UniProtKB/TrEMBL annotation:
It comes from Falsiroseomonas bella. This is Glycosyl transferase family 1. Keywords: Glycosyltransferase, Transferase. SUPFAM superfamilies: UDP-Glycosyltransferase/glycogen phosphorylase. The keyword Glycosyltransferase applies. GO terms for molecular function: glycosyltransferase activity. It comes from the Bacteria.
Amino acid sequence: MTRMLLWYWGRRGGGAQFALNLARALAPGGLALSVSRQNELIGALRALPVPRQEVSTYNGVAGFVAGFARLPRLSARLVRFARDEQTPVVFSAMAHPWTPFVAPALARAGLAFVPAIHDAVPHPGDPAVLFDWRLRRELAPARAAVVFSDAVAEAVAARRPGLKLIRLALGAHLPFGTATAEKTTDFLFFGRFRRYKGLDLLRDAWPALRAAHPGATLRVVGEGDAEALAPGLASLPGVTLEQRWVPDAEMAALVAAARVLVLPYREASQSGVLPVALASGVPVVATEVGGLSEQLRGTGAGLLVPPEPAAIAAAMARLLDPAAFAPAVEAARKAGARLNDWDGMAAQLREGIARALRG
């Protein structure tokens, strides 16, 4: 079995959780880690019984800019660590702003660079400056790439024809275990606030839902300016808005406290929150766009609807009906159990990389 180096220099969020869960599953088969010393999960990463390289990255814009002077030395350190640990494969769990500067050095050193591509096109409303350049620099030296939806696979194939692609399901990022909690809200929107996530669609759907169900409640939690994206959302009856970063230790309990998760996106590669909801037995109302469709379709764990306020409101109302809610909860638990099989995902990753390198 080929030894692997898992490379993740990010600090927090879904990437850190993904890297930790996958590292735990990969460790028994031969693994080394290169991680940021500023990673919010560094304690858990240090507890893994594998060789580890810790790199000081940065905590703000000034540190990011100053760090460019260190990139040649950091690239050389990463290559040397991979060679010392006899890990001919370097798997990037998620792109870091420094990835496009470091990845070419891995290929020049003869290492097999395999990145996980979470997004292959910029999200509508997100900054697209340098996106194409960054992705080209990440894909050009790659021997294979990991994708989590057919939508992303198609976009990657268009950018780098012939590149071997390894398709994995995006697992439930629950490093602290699946939580159970008393239901304190009917509906939850959770995640960083971005224009493509359709908060304005949810705002426009809510009055219709409340007209049919006057006691319904909606909790909106995430980092960003929700009022700039959906003016008036916080003033709607039954809505609670919490503009804050959610620590990893709080995430599972936050999701489990909702009856239904709502993802009213206009576009999506895939959602990291959706697997967390399923693993917590929480059904999902999601719009039928991009990778969201692939994640939810066929599970019975919720409803897929067009990205329109009326359709979103109707689906939310349907899941308030106990006759529809109960079977959706059971289906969510079954789907979530599959998404918590990190050992299976680690085995698929190793097998996929082995096939790609043989080819």
